[in-house]
Amino acid sequence: MDDALVIGGTRFIGRHLVEDLLAHDYDVTILNRGTHENPFADDDRVSRIEGDRTNDSALEAAAIEADPDAVFDCVAYYPKDVQAATRIFDDCEAYVYISSGAAYGREEIPKREGETPLESCTADQAADDSGETYGPRKAEGDRAIFAAAERGVNAMAVRPCIVYGPHDYTERLDFWIDRVNRFDRVVVPGDGTNVWHRAYVEDVATALRVVAEQGDAGEAYNVGDRRLVTLEEMVDLIAAELDTSVEVVTAGPRELEAGEIEPDDYVLYREYPHVLSTAKLADLGWESTPLEEAMARSVADFLESDRDGSEHDPGRENEERVLGILDTF
């Protein structure tokens, strides 16, 4: 494969995917509405087509103009998006859909492709745009991949867990980096052993390309860090990269109540562990970035940005009340 079309391609996962494809000598075209700054505007190796991926005519025009060997769909949020794309790009050598670990419908450790059931999805959920239906919509997109493969389309899905790294507009990890950077005491909900599997963004980009090149039609592939760390261990990794030390103060629901905080108010906290098996992807030759290196790049990018994760902040004044209560024990 030589020519790739990336639907999206300018913000986070898509941006890193374009960089990975360029590093592997692909000719790249991106398709998007142009509502976000294009980091490749001055790169003559990247062509751009303006169009809305929810408009089938725009996809059909892009299929003709780009004539891609591989299509990477970074912004398919509804099952109908996947259904349309797998029809329009049915003669490509590979169509890869970014699904999600949220597509799984049962709590298992770890969640495995083809074994752990997917979320069900009603017709109303398939058209809804709320966060509550994100997992069901992604699962229905996966089922559209399976159906396309049965029609002979070389369609595959990649299921990342929580993605982090440079240019992350969600600012989820940024909240924790900012906390460690500004305070010598960091409140962590629960007992610190919470595990919510995360995936470094450059590894997700590599996974998308590897699946396009080597994956099997109708298959889904989980992607996540090959080394799992708890929330407390993640804070310690951040502190090491910032060359600082912090006291991690764990607080359960009763202690957090003093600051009118719920454990779920903290981003990247999940009461029940969420772990994806990545063995199937590793069998294709994919490897993950060493965690210290991934965190170093993430912290460096944070320090160069104006992001602070403040939209996820439960309130430092609230935390100070919690710390005050804990100090009396």
TrEMBL record:
<dbReference type="InterPro" id="IPR036291">
    <property type="entry name" value="NAD(P)-bd_dom_sf"/>
</dbReference>
<comment type="similarity">
    <text>Belongs to the NAD(P)-dependent epimerase/dehydratase family.</text>
</comment>
<feature type="domain" description="NAD-dependent epimerase/dehydratase">
    <location>
        <begin position="4"/>
        <end position="224"/>
    </location>
</feature>
<protein>
    <submittedName>
        <fullName>Epimerase</fullName>
    </submittedName>
</protein>
<dbReference type="InterPro" id="IPR001509">
    <property type="entry name" value="Epimerase_deHydtase"/>
</dbReference>
<dbReference type="Pfam" id="PF01370">
    <property type="entry name" value="Epimerase"/>
</dbReference>
<feature type="region of interest" description="Disordered">
    <location>
        <begin position="108"/>
        <end position="137"/>
    </location>
</feature>
